[in-house]
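Are you able to produce any protein sequence you like plus the matching C-alpha cells because I've never seen that pairing?
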Amino acid sequence: MDYNYLAELLFPQIIDCPSDVEAKYPPRQLPEGAKVTRFAPSPTGFVHFGGLFPSTVGERLAHQSGGVFYLRIEDTDAKREVEGAAEGLIKTLAKYGIHFDEGAVLDDSGKISDKGAYGPYKQSLRGHIYQVYAKQLVREGKAYPCFTTEEELDELQAINKKEEIKNTDWQAEAEAKRAAMLAGRIFTIEEVEEHLKAGHPFVLRILANGDSERKIKFTDLVKGALEIPENDEDFVLLKSDGIPTYHFAHAIDDHLMGTTHVIRGEEWLPSLAKHIQLFSYLGFKLPKYMHIAQIMRIDENGNKKKLSKRDMGANMDDYTSMGYCPEAVCEYVMTLLNSNYEEWHMQNADKPYTSFPFNIKKMSISGCLFDFAKLNDVSKNVISRMTADEVYELSSNWAKEFDPELYNQISKNPEYTKSIFAIGRGGKKPRKDLSVWKDVREYVDFFFDDLFEIKDNYPENFSRTDIKLTLEEFAKEFDINDDSNTWFEKIKDIADMLGFASDMKAYKQNPESYKGNVSDISMFIRLAVTGKLNSPDMYSVMQILGYDRVINRVNEMIKVL
C-alpha cells in the first residue's frame, strides 16, 4: 500500500505538514512547575453544577502554580449546540470566580473572540489543523478511510441491539454482517479512487494495534494506579463531514495549547486507552490526567444517584434565582473537592477561599454527595461575615430582579434597611439568619408597615389576661430613649408584677412557683411588635422601629386580645 498516495487521495487540499502547525504553537515559557489547565465544555445548554468542579480545579491548579488557565469551546457537534450557550457559560462561570487567562472571551459587544496566542479556541475554527494531522496518520499507515454508508451504519446499530438478546445464531449472523460492512478496512487504492470519484463520503478510523487481553499501567492523579486494557477498537477520528471526534480533537488541541493537566469527569475513564494510543500515534507527550468523582445526590428512596440535569441544583442559573451568593457556592464546592478545607477555614476565617492551598491528594476518589443543607450552612457563615452595606447591596440587587415588592420597600430608605442588617452583625458570634437572599423578606418584613402581619399565635398555655396586662404595662413604661439595661429592667419589673420569674436562676430552681419567666414576658411583647415568636434582639428592633410604631402595634394587639 502506498500510504503517501492514499493520503493525497483523501486530503488533496492539505499541503501543510505537522511541523508547519507546530511552528505556530511554540512551547509556553512558564516557571518550573507551572500548570497549564483548561475548561473545555460543549455549548449544549446551561452550566451544570458538575461543570463547576473541573473548572474550579483547573483554575486553582493553574493560578496557584503561576501557570495558565484557558477556555476552549468544543463545538464540533453542531446538532447539539444551543445558540448563546457559550456566551452564557462564560458569564455564569465569571460570576462564580472562574476567570480565564486566555481562550474564548466576550468582547465589548458580547460576542465571543479569542484572547491568547494559541487559538483559535473554538474547535469549529480549527478544522484545517485536525486534517493536517489526519493526513499524517494516513501517511504513516495508522489511519484508514471507511466508506460504510449511513444506511449500513444504521443496520449495524440494529444488529448490535439485537445482539443484546444473547442469541447464538444472532451473534454469528451479526459478526458476519459486521465483517462485511466494515470491509472498508480491507481495500485497494483502486477501490478508494472509485469511491471518491463517485462522491462517497468516508470516515477516518484509527488502525488500532492494541490487544484487549494486555493491560496498560497508568497513574491517574485522583484515582491513583490503574491497569486498563489496551485499545483494540478502530474508533473514528474524522466524521464523514470532516469534523473531528472528541478523541481526536482534544489530543491535538491539548498538545498544541501546552496543556499539562487534563481535568475531567470519571465517566471518561473508559476512553482513556483510546487517548493513550492516540497520543502515542501522534508522537505527543501525554498530559497528566485527573478523573474527578461524579456528583451524587440522595433520591427519594435513600439511594445515591448521579446529579442529573433535571435535578434541582444542577443548573447553575438556579442558584441566582434561589438567592445564593456566588462566594457561598464556591466555598461549598471547595468543601466537596478537598477534605481539609473546612479545617483550614476554621483557622483562617478571615481569608477568602482563594487563599486555601488546594491539594490534588485531598480530592475524593468516590462520588461527592450534593447536600442543600450543607450548602445552606456554608452560605449562612459567608453572609454572617459580610458588612451591613454588603448585605444591603447584594440582597437589593437580587430583590430588584426576583422580588420587586421587597425591593421597593428596602430601597426607599437604604440607611434604614442597613440598620436592620446591622443587628447582631460583627463580633465573634454574628447572627446567622440568612442563608439565601430569598430569606431577606421573612427576616425584614415586620420592619415595613406594608409587609407587616401577625404570623404566629400565642401559646395556649398562657392566660390571655396575663398577655394583655403585660402589653398594657409595657405601653405605659416604654421610653425610646432608655438604654438597653433600663429597657430590660422594666421588662423584669412587669414579670415580677404578674407572677413571672424575673430571675432565670430562681425559675430553674423552682419553676412551679411561677406562671413563667421573663423570657415569656419578652415573647408576649415580641409577638405584638414583630408578629413572630422569634426575631432579632428586641431592644435593637424597637430602636429601629421607633416609639410610634412600637406603641401602635402593642395597642392593636391589646384590642385583638
User: Anything to note?
Assistant: Residues 49-64 form the longest helix (16 residues).
